[in-house]
Amino acid sequence: MSAALPPFPHTEEPFGRTELLQLDTTAHEPDACLRADAARNRARLLDAAARLVAEHGAAGVTMEAVATAANVGKGTVFRRFGDRTGLLTALLDHSEKKFQAAFLGGPPPLGPGAPPVERLRAFGCAMLRRSAEQLDLQLAAEPSADRRFASPPLRVLHGHVALLLRQAVPDADTELVAHTLMGYLNPVLIHHLTRQCGMPLERLEAGWTDLVDRVTAPEHHTSAAPAPGPNS
Fold first, then answer.
1. pTM of the entire structure?
2. For residues 67 and 165, what is the distance between their CA atoms, to the nearest angstrom?
3. Residue 66: CATH number of its domain
4. Does the keyword RNA-binding apply (predicted)?
5. For residues 69 and 62, what is the distance between their CA atoms, to the nearest angstrom?
């Protein structure tokens, strides 16, 4: 799934010029450019697989189940994706590209056109909802420690958060702050909070919004008055 990371835009560059991350999921495709009907069939199969993940978790995604959900023969699924691993890889790539399209060029506040703080709030809430819907799949694909922060999808997400932070709080160390914010959105933490601690997703979304507001609040607006001295 590795690919060269596209240059991340500077603040003044419009988001529309950023190319979506291209992940290598075409090992089983005879042509680089799929015919329109083949592309539609592939999208239909991936949509069926995404529904199965949402309803039954990653364990519910089998070649047979996807074929039944998409109303096609099992051989069609094998020809398109090769095996179950190829299907899951393509499913993650499909979801990632849709999400990238939403925050790079979709409607505000997730997409361009809203102030950076509003976009940060929307980005985190969208990430939380997306992770909750496909948590088993994301956990199954969680990279090892030596690859986690170098994976191209995570680098794109981190770069987007860092860019919005540079616009909102240009004096901050936005690279490090972006890592702090992205840590809140880690699927492993979301699994712990929602499934092991029983926290509702709404609480996580509220916590994200509060965290963004605290991180982006100008320090001179939040400085406390000096404590009274002993002779006051």
1. 0.67
2. 43
3. 1.10.10.60
4. no
5. 11
